[in-house]
Specification:
Elements: E1 3-5, E2 14-16, H1 24-33, H2 58-64, H3 79-86, H4 95-104, H5 109-122, H6 125-129, H7 133-147, H8 156-167, H9 177-181, H10 189-200, H11 208-222, H12 226-230, H13 236-244, H14 253-259, H15 265-268, H16 277-287, H17 293-301, H18 311-322, H19 329-343, H20 352-362, H21 383-395, H22 402-417, H23 429-437, H24 446-452, H25 467-474, H26 483-490, H27 495-509, H28 516-533, H29 539-549, H30 559-562, H31 571-583, H32 590-604, H33 624-628, H34 638-644, H35 648-655, H36 658-665, H37 672-684, H38 694-697, H39 711-722, H40 731-745, H41 753-759, H42 768-772, H43 776-787, H44 794-806, H45 814-817
Antiparallel strand pairs: 1-2
Length: 823
């Protein structure tokens, strides 16, 4: 409990701590000197008018009354008499006597001042200097209790000139932190100088708490700045040597920059006045982004000659760690490299507790700045030390640079394989990954796990493998042998980032294709994440997915999956997607093809006045269809194509490029309007018959448009028609084939009457243009047969009648025209 003393003794009431350094005996006397307020003292006040003994000299009293040395007589002596008595060797060393004279006689500021003045003038200097610390502390405690209440009204000359310069110095070595703290900060620079002079020579004799409080008081006395307080041009070195003295070691670095805004901490690192470890750390932290590699190097140089272990280096590292986030990248990198240089020679012999402290508490905040070139595990390092170090590095993994992450992994691999630093014979796969490699296992290729741990069992630790490692695992030939394995692996791949990493490694590692069933399952799992993300995925990533990652899986895509293709892409991403789908065209179901084509159609369709959605390269359309439709052009209609490329010449060019012609060459059952469009485009661009695919040539019944002079084309058309399966052709198609054959048979010459008679009812399929080209005599010869046929169109009948009229026949009557009269 705090001890209290009261105004009954002429001082203000206040709490005094019981741990001020007094011995148990002194503390007991203290309690009697300063009783609680409920205790009343009956001791008479000394040096009062009713006490004439106080005016006599101590020598006189001693000569007349030796009993004056008895305790009960002390209360009748004055301050100067007591001082002479106290100056006697051994007196102040007796705590009972000291307590008694302050209890009975020295009860005021004035009496204490008189007592000290007389004591210092009378006592042999050695008497005071040889006093033990407890005795000095006891005197100073009583004096300070009388002095402190007078601080508000104490003149600066009195404080500095009398107290600090003369009365207190013999006892200041015993001063306590709370007493220093109570010194007013309002005194002028002269009073500050006296304060500084009084303590400067005591630095090495003062305990650290007192030194710290003195430094703090110096800072307060010089505020707001040393220039404003003392009005001088002060350099950085002046501030430390002339204003703080050795106490600068206990000050905070921020105190220097506060009192002297121009304080040059970097210059002080090369000065003979060395900053302390904590101040160096605070200096580097205060530099922030302005800190340079040279600053860090100079700071570390202060510790180069210190023995290991160095408490200063520990303090520096600890403080730096707390402010690591404020350091520049250069400083942080240089510090962790330099500190590691101090640590490395001692790693092998370092105790585990000390190593844990360094790797975790001290260096931990700086480890993210570790350089890839740092050598971590020296030869001879024990396995337990290795595990301590990897655990600390593991905690910093996410903040390490990619190159450092990989470097650390390579060094762990070197330690485990080459150095054989840890026995792994009985280590499980899970422990191997979590304890011996930690997060650095993400840097390993999957194959390296079995290189380090031959008994590694991947399927037992799927949840500990990175997405890339899972992708490499999935690419192992024969591993994906069931849909269950696919589900196990992909259950540990979450989100688009991980899925991309998985597919990247799988695409590179896979050398064979799993079964269709397995690939379909994999496509379903992958699309479950990819499909909903496509609309928001950057175009470049969409391109990568469809051009690379999905190459194996797209052939198993369903119509439902392809229905979620993104509606809006840039042209390059769209074309990459088309390329991927085009590669899977032959394996896609009819429904999947149709859905994919509808997506392409929506994307490519433009208004007649708009330019194509994906521009025509270099003014031509030669590569437009392969890039934007691929094989899906086989599903297009004439109207669709005319909507994609509104310029007829560009469309003809697009349809007749080699790649598109090859597509048509391999196709079957082309829509007739597409066949006709393609054939027309080829003829417009002067294709020779040998270049026109059979699938395009076999366009009927419009073969009348074929130039009859192209014998090769006529022959190919005839062959095409003659080879057409009568079984697969409809009745109408068979009739059309006969018409075509009949016309082709007469290509280069007009059909004879006999041939027309042979055609019979099929002649009804002759176009008006074909009839107009017939020979009049042939028509006349076949007229009876032709007239028996009903179903002629008005145009056909008109052309037949025109032929007869041209030969001079009168066919105005119905009987003459017979069945030629249109129905």
């Amino acid at each position: 409990m705090p001890l209290r003393y009261t105004a009954a003794y002429g001082v203000h009431q206040r709490d005094i701590p019981t741990h001020g350094g007094l011995s148990a005996a002194s503390a007991d006397i203290w309690r009697r000197v300063f009783p609680s307020p409920s205790v009343k003292s009956e001791v008479p006040r000394a040096a009062s008018p009713r006490n004439p003994l106080a005016a006599l000299t101590f020598a006189f009293l001693l000569s007349r009354r030796p009993s004056v040395l008895q305790l009960e007589a002390l209360g009748y002596l004055g301050a100067e008499q007591l001082a002479v008595l106290a100056a006697q060797p051994g007196f102040l060393g007796n705590s009972s006597l000291v307590i008694k004279i302050f209890e009975l006689s020295l009860l005021s500021y004035e009496s204490a001042a008189t007592f000290l003045d007389k004591l210092i003038a009378t006592a042999n200097p050695s008497t005071l200097s040889d006093l033990n610390l407890d005795a000095k502390r006891l005197v100073l405690t009583f004096v300070w209790a009388l002095l402190e209440p007078r601080f508000p009204t104490l003149g600066e000359a009195e404080w500095g000139g009398a107290w600090l310069s003369r009365r207190l110095p013999p006892f200041l070595v015993a001063i306590q932190p709370y007493q220093v703290a109570s010194v007013p900060a309002s005194f002028n620079c002269s009073a500050f100088q006296a304060f500084y002079d009084s303590f400067e020579s005591l630095y090495d004799r003062l305990p650290v708490p007192v030194r710290t409080e003195v430094a703090r008081k110096i800072t307060q006395l010089l505020q707001p700045t040393v220039a404003e307080r003392c009005g001088k041009n002060v350099t950085s070195e002046d501030l430390l040597l002339k204003y703080y003295g050795l106490f600068y070691r206990e000050a905070n670095f921020s105190d220097f920059t506060q009192l002297l805004p121009s304080f040059n901490g970097s210059a002080m690192m090369t000065s003979s006045t060395k900053l302390t470890a904590l101040q160096l750390a605070d200096l580097l932290i205060s530099l922030g982004p302005r800190g340079t590699r040279a600053d860090a190097t100079q700071a570390l140089a202060q510790f180069s000659t210190l023995p290991w272990p160095s408490s200063d280096l520990v303090a520096f590292t600890e403080r730096i760690g707390k402010g690591a986030g404020q350091l520049s990248d250069e400083v942080r990198s240089e510090l962790v490299t330099g500190l590691w240089g101090h640590l490395t020679p001692h790693l092998v012999k370092m105790k585990e507790v000390e190593l844990s402290t360094w790797m975790g508490h001290l260096l931990g905040p700086l480890l993210p700045a570790l350089s890839p070139s740092t050598q971590l595990f020296p030869a001879g390092l024990t396995c337990s030390s290795y595990l301590i170090m990897t655990a600390a590095l593991n905690n910093s993994y996410d903040n390490l640079s990619a190159s450092t992450q990989h470097s650390v992994y390579l060094q762990t691999k070197q330690y485990l394989i080459v150095e054989k630093g840890c026995p792994l014979a009985n280590v499980t796969s899970g422990t191997f990954l979590s304890t011996y490699l930690g997060k650095f296992s993400r840097q390993a290729a999957f194959s390296e796990f079995t290189e380090i741990l031959p008994t590694f069992q991947p399927l037992q630790v799927l949840e500990q493998l990175s997405p890339a490692q899972l992708g490499e695992l999935a690419g192992v030939p024969g591993l994906l042998n069931s849909t269950a394995v696919v589900d196990q692996i992909l259950a540990n791949v979450h989100g688009m980032a991980e899925l991309s990493s998985f597919m990247e490694r799988y695409t590179n590692a896979s050398t064979s294709q799993p079964s269709v069933e397995v690939r379909a399952r994999m496509m379903s799992q992958v699309w479950g994440t990819l499909g909903p993300s496509l609309a928001t995925l950057p175009d470049a990533q969409v391109s990568v997915w469809f051009s690379r990652y999905l190459a194996q899986l797209l052939p198993t895509a369903t119509a439902a999956q392809l229905a979620s293709l993104p509606p809006s892409l840039n042209c390059s991403a769209f074309q990459a997607t088309v390329g991927g789908l085009d590669g899977a065209y032959s394996s896609l179901s009819v429904d999947a093809r149709r859905v994919a084509y509808l997506w392409m159609s929506r994307f490519l369709s433009v208004l007649p006045t708009e330019a194509p959605r994906c521009g025509v390269p270099a003014g031509t359309a030669s590569g437009w269809i392969p890039a934007n439709l691929g094989h899906f052009v086989l599903l297009a209609s004439r109207t669709d194509l005319q909507g994609f490329l509104t310029d007829a010449q560009q469309l003809d060019a697009a349809l007749t490029t080699d790649a598109v012609v090859d597509t048509f060459r391999a196709a079957r059952d082309l829509p007739s309007d597409l066949q006709k469009m393609v054939l027309g485009a080829m003829l417009n661009r002067n294709f020779t018959a040998d270049k026109i695919p059979d699938s395009v040539i076999c366009v009927y019944p419009d073969v009348t448009t074929v130039p009859p002079t192209d014998a090769v084309l006529v022959a190919k058309l005839k062959a095409c028609l003659q080879n057409a399966s009568a079984v697969s052709a409809s009745a109408q198609q068979q009739q059309q084939q006969k018409v075509a054959l009949a016309i082709l048979a007469g290509a280069g010459q007009q059909l004879s009457g006999a041939k027309l008679i042979e055609l019979g009812p099929v002649a009804l399929l002759l176009s008006p243009a074909a009839i107009a080209n017939l020979n009049g005599q042939a028509v006349l010869t076949a007229l009876p047969t032709l007239g028996q046929q009903s179903g002629w169109s008005l145009a056909q009948a008109q052309q037949l009648v025109n032929k007869l009229v041209g030969m001079g026949f009168n066919v105005s009557g119905t009987s003459a025209r017979g069945g030629l009269y249109p129905c």
